């Protein structure tokens, strides 16, 4: 499928898949969306703690990079697992401007390392942040009570409804510890129903810029 790099409304870049008219991040602001959905309504619930994070859709690495930066402010130790079936290309990676837009030029080497490190191996990026990238389909995830927090950042229901099925959310539910959280940018009724059928308690929250609502699900 044909892909292009576009600049979103907050100045940060993302990848646009032309055939689907679907972006890796919100066209209204990739960084704004990540901070609102995954940090403010997810990671920030666990200050001063060791947090195990599972990201569904590692993609450009934006969510992992922002988590690395924000965890330092929140005094957290992060064990981060990012699942991705189709890694982005080197050319696409080089077109991402996240370290500049986040004013984190001194941490650009960390962002680069996230992409060049080996798959399916745990790598320490700092004393308080480890990353494991798993090349895996979401439907194959079989972790049991391993994570405190899930960033559910799959492509939208409009283009890949199978990724938002009861089966997938049951796998998410099983992979989470008790009193844990899943956050996603999505807010469709069918997604809420599938989450509830999988065992989650679901709340609707204000969405990021350009999107009225989002979901946070609790186990």
Q: What's the layout of helices and strands?
A:
Elements: E1 3-7, E2 13-17, E3 22-23, H1 30-40, E4 50-56, H2 62-73, E5 77-83, H3 90-94, H4 98-101, H5 108-116, E6 122-126, E7 129-134, E8 147-152, H6 166-175, E9 176-184, H7 189-198, E10 201-206, E11 213-218
Parallel strand pairs: 4-5, 4-8, 5-7, 8-9
Antiparallel strand pairs: 1-2, 2-3, 6-7, 9-11, 10-11
Helix pairs in contact: 1-2, 6-7
Structure write-up:
With 219 residues, the chain is α/β, with parallel strands linked by helices. It has one domain (30-218): Rossmann fold. Helices cover 28% and strands 29% of the residues. The protein is built from seven helices and eleven strands. The chain has helices at residues 30-40, 62-73, 90-94, 98-101, 108-116, 166-175, 189-198; strands spanning 3-7, 13-17, 22-23, 50-56, 77-83, 122-126, 129-134, 147-152, 176-184, 201-206, 213-218. The strands form two sheets. An eight-stranded mixed beta sheet has the order 6-7-5-4-8-9-11-10. Strands 1-2-3 form a three-stranded antiparallel beta sheet, with no helix packed on it. Helix 1 (30-40) crosses helix 2 and helix 6 (166-175) packs across helix 7. The N and C termini lie far apart (37 Å). The mean pLDDT is 97.
């Amino acid at each position: 499928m044909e892909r292009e790099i576009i600049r979103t409304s907050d100045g940060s870049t993302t990848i646009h898949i032309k055939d689907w008219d679907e972006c890796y991040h919100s066209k209204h602001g990739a960084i704004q969306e990540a901070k609102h959905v995954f940090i403010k309504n997810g990671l920030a619930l666990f200050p001063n703690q060791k947090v195990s994070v599972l990201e569904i859709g590692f993609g450009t690495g934006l969510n992992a990079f922002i988590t690395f930066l924000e965890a330092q402010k929140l005094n957290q130790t992060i064990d981060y697992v990012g699942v991705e079936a189709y890694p982005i290309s080197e050319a696409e990676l080089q077109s991402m401007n996240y370290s500049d837009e986040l004013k984190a030029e001194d941490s650009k080497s960390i962002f680069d390392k996230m992409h060049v490190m080996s798959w399916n191996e745990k790598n320490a990026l700092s004393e308080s942040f480890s990353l494991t990238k798993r090349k895996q389909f979401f439907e194959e995830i079989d972790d049991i009570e391993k994570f405190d927090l899930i960033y559910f950042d799959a492509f939208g229901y409009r283009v890949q409804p199978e990724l938002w099925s009861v089966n997938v959310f049951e796998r998410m539910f099983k992979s989470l510890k008790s009193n844990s959280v899943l956050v996603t940018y999505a807010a469709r009724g069918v997604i809420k129903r599938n989450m509830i059928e999988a065992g989650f308690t679901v709340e609707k929250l204000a969405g990021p810029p350009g999107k009225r609502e989002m979901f946070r699900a609790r186990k």
